[in-house]
UniProtKB/TrEMBL annotation:
Species this chain originates from: Streptomyces roseoverticillatus
Subcellular location: Cell membrane
UniProt xrefs under Pfam families: MFS_1 (PF07690)
Lineage, broadest ranks: Bacteria, Bacillati, Actinomycetota, Actinomycetes, Kitasatosporales
Top-level taxon of the source organism: Bacteria
Protein name: MFS transporter
Keywords noted in UniProt: Cell membrane, Membrane, Transmembrane, Transmembrane helix
TM regions (residue ranges): 57-77, 111-132, 169-190, 232-253, 265-288, 295-314, 320-341, 362-380, 386-404
Signal peptide segment: none
Cross-referenced InterPro entries: MFS, MFS_trans_sf
Its membrane topology: Multi-pass membrane protein
Length: 417
């Protein structure tokens, strides 16, 4: 790992322009994804008139490819150059999305069609996300890693702020399927920026390679025995279960029970983006003052329990007050998106990076699938608000595994307990 880092530091990967291009490409793709996070369920609700069961099915279909493909794709990506794979994934995602508005304009859009597009999106995103999480370590060696993660998280949270309001406003002005064209354009723009990178990548060395199953097993075993990674998995899975449930059910609650417009829902979600951006921007500085592990724990204790406002939205908690609570919960998520990602990259050897990313994405995305599927089932059994309560409880308790783990004793970014 040291030799690789030294080679990167003295080679073309240390050129600042490459990091800027990478952040631009990833950021544009994230903007498209955030717009789609709102536009796809709005398409299902407004065009196909589906309810909680339909939105739950769509979100589950998006996440299943990670559960099925994450491990083998992660192992395969340790053997190849990631940039061409990421470009291809962007092009596939754009092509699939374009078919939705075309079908809607022709009056031919169906739930199976929308599900098929979502599955294609999920498969392509497996390759893109695991590639980009591995490529960043080549682009940002040593002390640059935390700063690059912070900038990427800032771009991500900026997309969370502006993407949902923009999607909601545009869906009301035009139509939800039309908004998906913006998402497709974002993927094309991302592919264009990725094609300009000149970074020399460092996949696993040549020579005799172990079998794919053996490599997968090495990645899984490393995550299982590494205490920092175990904690990241538990806390991240709780966040994903909670957010998946909220994002699955909130459009149904807001549009059907509360009578909100798409634009109002977008503004509510945008408030969460403001909190997430604040958390991402402040993460490195606050970690330097309090200690990285202590900062993660204290922010979680202060902000995560406010998730209980979500199932009480509109009755009895007013919308603006619930939006403040959601913003503070997302502040915790944005804060962790920088520090927990940096912890995980620092404790993982370069030769295991894609496999560890694949293992963790399988677990994280399995949590998303569980959260969305459970939300739909609970909503059918006990109502939307009860299901939102269960999702909010996962978010409210996310600080507990941090408090019980060695992560809380980490002092600086770069020092493991």
């Amino acid at each position: 790992m040291t030799e690789t880092a030294e080679a990167i530091a003295t080679g073309p990967a240390a050129v600042p322009q490459d990091r800027t291009r990478y952040l631009t490409a990833s950021g544009v793709a994230l903007w498209g994804a955030q717009i789609g996070q709102v536009a796809v369920p709005l398409t299902a609700v407004t065009v196909l008139h589906t309810g909680a069961a339909g939105t739950s099915l769509l979100r589950t279909a998006l996440t299943l490819p990670f559960v099925i493909l994450g491990l083998p794709v992660g192992a395969w990506l340790d053997r190849v150059r990631r940039r061409p794979v990421m470009i291809g994934a962007d092009l596939v995602r754009a092509a699939a999305l374009v078919t939705v508005p075309v079908a809607a304009w022709c009056g031919r859009l169906t739930m199976p069609h929308l599900l098929a597009v979502v599955v294609v999106q999920g498969v392509a995103t497996v390759f893109f996300d695991l590639g980009t999480q591995s490529l960043v370590k080549d682009l940002a060696p040593g002390a640059l890693l935390a700063r690059t993660n912070a900038r990427l998280a800032t771009v991500s949270q900026a997309a969370v702020i502006a993407g949902p309001p923009l999607a909601g406003w545009a869906a009301g002005l035009l139509s939800a399927p039309t908004v998906l064209l913006v998402m497709a354009a974002g993927y094309l723009w991302s592919a264009g920026w990725l094609s300009t990178l000149t970074t020399r990548e460092h996949p696993a060395g040549g020579g005799a390679r172990p079998r794919l199953l053996q490599q997968i097993g090495e990645g899984v075993a490393f995550v299982a025995r590494q205490p920092v990674l175990r904690t990241v998995v538990i806390a991240g899975s709780m966040v994903n279960i909670g957010i998946a449930g909220v994002m699955t059910l909130l459009p149904v609650l807001a549009l059907t029970e509360l009578g909100w417009s798409e634009g109002t829902l977008g503004l509510f979600l945008g408030a969460g983006g403001i909190g997430g951006l604040t958390g991402a921007v402040s993460a490195v500085r606050l970690a330097g003052k309090l200690g990285a592990g202590r900062a993660v724990l204290l922010v979680g204790i202060a902000a995560a329990p406010l998730a209980i406002a979500i199932p009480l939205l509109g009755r009895p908690v007013p919308g603006p007050l619930a939006a403040v609570g959601w913003a503070l919960v997302m502040l915790k998520v944005g804060f962790d998106s920088v520090l927990m990602m940096t912890f995980r990259q620092q404790v993982t050897p370069a030769g295991l990076m894609a496999r560890v990313n694949g293992t963790m994405r399988v677990l994280f995305t399995g949590a998303v699938a569980l959260g969305s599927a459970a939300a739909g089932a609970l909503a059918a059994a006990g109502g939307v608000r009860w299901a939102l309560g269960a999702s909010a409880a996962c978010l409210a308790c996310v600080w507990i595994p941090i408090a019980l783990s060695p992560v809380r004793r980490m002092t600086t970014l770069g020092t493991t307990p």
